[in-house]
Amino acid sequence: MTAPSAVKAALTTQSIETPSWAYGNSGTRFKVFAQQGVPRSPQEKLDDAAQVHRHTGVAPVVALHIPWDRVDDYAALADYAKERGLRLGAINSNVFQDDDYKLGSVCSPDPAVRRKALGHLLECVDIMDATGSRDLKLWFADGTNYPGQDDIRSRQDRLAEALTAVYERLGEDQRMLLEYKFFEPAFYTTDVPDWGTAYAHCLKLGPKAQVVVDTGHHAPGTNIEFIVALLLREGKLGGFDFNSRFYADDDLMVGAADPFQLFRIMYEVVRGEGLSSEVAFMLDQCHNIEPKIPAIIRSVMNVQEATAKALLVDRDALAAAQAACDVLGANAVLMDAFNTDVRPLLADVREEAGLDPDPIAAYHRSGWAQRIIDDRKGGQQAGWGA
Ligand code: AOS
Ligand code: ZN
Ligand code: ZN
């Protein structure tokens, strides 16, 4: 078992990126249940994100979404974040909510639509220049609903053309993270449906193009940790969009549906030296019925717990059991770590960092929940599309 001191050291350097949109209202196609105190601006989202970092100590980065976080001065927004101990993270493009994108964005059969979509992606890189962000996150809703609707290969050609143009625009220290999703909102084909498609495009583009694994973007039963291990081995794992799913892309709190799967994913990250690399550990969640800030804090804690358990795997004993073809022994080594209650260890890590050992309780005691309800009356609440 890895000595807790090494585990503690690794846990104190972990950084989990929270998404601006998780602080705003969200819902399903059936209903958005608006909540009191929800941010009305990107600045108020950062105020809420600062509470998550204040109580967890490991969430200093906030991903933005354009146009949901559009402001006149992105450098000023970066300063606003910095004044709160935060920095702006990935810039998430949005080529899925404009009426023009009904038949696709960069993959659309209409060249004018493709030009419009590419223009937005290039604008996002301009914003990265202003915010100092390293990563551009690209998720395409592009796809088709019926066989014959469009040509699968031609859409890949259009995608490659747009990705190449974006890649050529990137600065030296910037990356593009291509996210795949097996279905939704398109139902017959999705133009970036799986890790293989994303990997193939990123391989052609070059080292600044990497793959994002959204844990909710796989068919039921997919072995996600295998994908993680392979992409990490190939130097193409740009990051995660962490969330939980029961049936589809449910965007629930990460670790809430299958903590064992999250542990297996984090074990492959640890085993592949991914903790200390450039892998971005982002959340991509929506808290439709639960209070948002505590749900995000819980998600951060779940990632920490999975990471701590992964770090506790006795790698020497595991390697020895594997080399000896000791199937049950090797499995037992992994399960020993997964079955270890790491909450006391994490409480120690937090106390040694000057934090409350229980971030959720600390948040509830802080009074922030009531304060934002009192302060944020009136005005247009932030949410998907707002
Ligand atoms: C959509 O399903 C993808 O997970 C996206 O990463 C994300 O939800 C969207 O880009 C919002 O920023
Ligand atoms: Zn995602
Ligand atoms: Zn998603």
From TrEMBL:
InterPro entries reported for this sequence: L-rhamnose_isomerase, Rhamnose_iso-rel, Xyl_isomerase-like_sf
Metal-binding keyword on record: yes
Keyword set includes Oxidoreductase: no
Record key words, sorted: Isomerase, Manganese, Metal-binding
Molecular functions per Gene Ontology: L-rhamnose isomerase activity
Gene3D superfamilies listed in its UniProt record: Divalent-metal-dependent TIM barrel enzymes
Xref: PANTHER family: L-RHAMNOSE ISOMERASE
Protein name, entry field: L-rhamnose isomerase
Organism: Streptomyces litchfieldiae
